Amino acid sequence: MPAPADRELVALAATVGRLRTERRLSQEEASLRSGLNRRYFHEVENRRLSPTYRALGKMASGLGMPLTGLLRALADDLEAVRC
Fold first, then answer.
1. Which of 3.30.750.24, 3.30.360.10, 1.10.260.40, 2.60.270.50 would CATH assign to domain 4-82?
2. CB 59 within 8 Å of CB 44
3. Which DSSP string corresponds to 67-79?
4. 8 A C-beta contact, residue 20 and residue 70
5. pLDDT tens, position by position, 36-74
6. Where exactly are the structural domains of the chain?
7. 73 in the Ramachandran plot: left (φ > 0), alpha (ψ -120 to 50) or beta?
C-alpha cells in the first residue's frame, strides 16, 4: 500500500487532470490561464511533481476555480478512494 503522501499525490494528479478535462482545456490552455508553464501541468498530472501552495492556487485559477474549489475536489476524490 502506498504511503499517505503518495496516495495524495496520485489523487492530486487525477483531480487536476479530471477538472481540466471536464472544462475541455488542454494543458497548454490551462497553463496560459494560470501563468504556469505547460510542462508544469504535465509533470503534476503525471505524478512527477508535487506543486507548491502558490502553484496550486495558480493551477486552480487556470482551471477557472478558487483554490478552495480545487482542494474540495481533491478531498472529495480522496474520500471516494477510501470508501
1. 1.10.260.40
2. yes
3. HHHHHHHHHHHHH
4. no
5. 999 999 999 999 999 999 999 999 999 999 999 999 999
6. 4-82
7. alpha
C-alpha cell at 4: 499517505
Q: Determine contact, residues 78/7, Cβ cutoff 8 Å.
A: yes
In terms of phi and psi (left: phi > 0; alpha: psi -120 to 50; beta: otherwise), the region of 75 is alpha
Burial of 73 (0-12, 13-18, 19+ CB in 10 A): buried
The pTM of this model reads: 0.88
Check: CB of residue 55 under 8 Å from CB of residue 40.
yes
